């Protein structure tokens, strides 16, 4: 899952990003609304964690732009105000969910994951395919009942492949979904991560390489 965190309090923004990355999400961070619009125009995000009171461009206008563009991106709006009227207004603008500050980080994680599941084809909370069971909320992976310990990027790559439901996923798509924008697009990190993931998942191999196209399960 790829997430954009938009928050002008830099310490909070960086802390949220660090926590989401520990949950095997690819996270980009910006500190104002203008930068958010720029990123949204370049990258595809599953979820935007959007502070409402932003400098340069207000969070409401960022949310409206996402809706106007018809993007499938889900918006979790943050605000220091917990008034019901503010929550209603935020939802009417086009936000998918609303979380007042201060918030429990565990709740933020749960809400981001819930929004990430709201795809055009609804997916179950626990993904199962080819004897593999992946639970994004618990960060657990089992193959034929055996638990497998994965590093965050390995987990993220496996989740992207599982969510594709057998479709081929290119290396570029994996790079976009599992790594942030600071990753060198010419690196071999995708190939190395897939190799390590195959080894950890064991025999027989379940990740198939489609020459010239990418990978699938």
TrEMBL record:
Secretion signal span: none
Residues with the 4-aspartylphosphate modification: 51
Domain Response regulatory per the UniProt entry, residue ranges: 2-116
Start-end of DNA-binding region: 124-217
Keyword vocabulary terms for this entry: DNA-binding, Phosphoprotein
Matches recorded under CDD domains: REC_OmpR_CusR-like (cd19935), trans_reg_C (cd00383)
InterPro entries, A to Z: CheY-like_superfamily, OmpR/PhoB-type_DNA-bd, Sig_transdc_resp-reg_receiver, WalR-like, WH-like_DNA-bd_sf
Keyword Zinc on entry: no
SUPFAM superfamilies: CheY-like (SSF52172)
Domain of life: Bacteria
Domain OmpR/PhoB-type span(s) in chain numbering: 124-217
Pfam families, alphabetized: Response_reg, Trans_reg_C
PANTHER family registered for this protein in UniProt: REGULATOR OF RPOS (PTHR48111), TRANSCRIPTIONAL REGULATORY PROTEIN CUTR (PTHR48111:SF36)
Official protein name in the record: Response regulator transcription factor
